[in-house]
Fold:
Amino acid sequence: MSLKIDLVTKRFGSFTAVNQLSLDIPDKQIFGFLGANGAGKTTTFRMILGLIDATEGAITWEGEPINYDKTDKIGYLPEERGLYPKQTVKEQIIYLGRLRGMAKKEILEQLNQWLERFRIPDYLDKKVEELSKGNQQKIQFISAVIHNPRLLILDEPFSGLDPVNVELLKNAVLKLKEAGTTIVFSSHQMDTVEELCEYLCIMQHGKPIVHGSLKEIKRSFGKKNLFIHADFDLSYLADLQGVVSQKVTPVGCKLQIEDEEVSQRILESLQGKGFIRKFELEEPSLNDIFIEKVGESYE
Ligand SMILES: Nc1ncnc2c1ncn2[C@@H]1O[C@H](COP(=O)(O)OP(=O)(O)OP(=O)(O)O)[C@@H](O)[C@H]1O
Structure:
């Protein structure tokens, strides 16, 4: 683990934004930060980058705090996007690439590849203010990765993008991971986090309420989802022991159950009642886990 967050607290006056956070972020993996608005994700990113100081605790990357002499190894997509509207894409990225010590030729080669990949190959000489919001976001992403950083921090990179652009960006993130970049990002899109991350942390009021590997988090949550479609009334299932909740839809129902044994009992109870079109047991989704854990901590 080269990125270590050790008992970090951040206070703004008397308000505690991050509260004794400890995390080991694995190398060359994608790590997701989830949490309701105001949970402390952006504050944590700013502390990792050394943009603001922790009130208590320490954050180190490869054994040292991050500071400006590591700029060429780190990429950051900040929550408050900031491009110069009057500059062209080319001028903007050349300027930012030069700040990271790259040669102009190399910047242009990389930039052209990224524009191809993001399906905007003719945008080199367009002014930023002429671009749609989604395309500006892609340019901002390019500015964070143009120097091929080893550590990449992305604050809500998928917000405001249409599904096609979300897919393009997801593929870009996966490619960077394959190339050995450690990626830390925040998102409110559970399905995206589920697709990309092996490791994650759910924050609430500045504290990690769940963290670890996605597989392990799902396993230890225990509960499972059971989807049943049948040609008869399934409402009686809500009263069976081990059924936590039931949602009825026009084509059947989704049950949250305590464990696999409950699904066996349900299957037995369905015998002889009529035609069963679907009976599917699934792992809990990250959305289920988030809602329960964040809900609990609200209580
Ligand atoms: N400079 C500051 N001064 C005072 N309070 C701050 C400051 N920066 C952040 N906060 C507060 O700290 C809390 C955590 O904010 P932060 O931006 O880290 O949350 P977040 O998890 O990134 O939220 P979101 O999902 O809405 O972006 C919020 O209540 C916010 O108002």
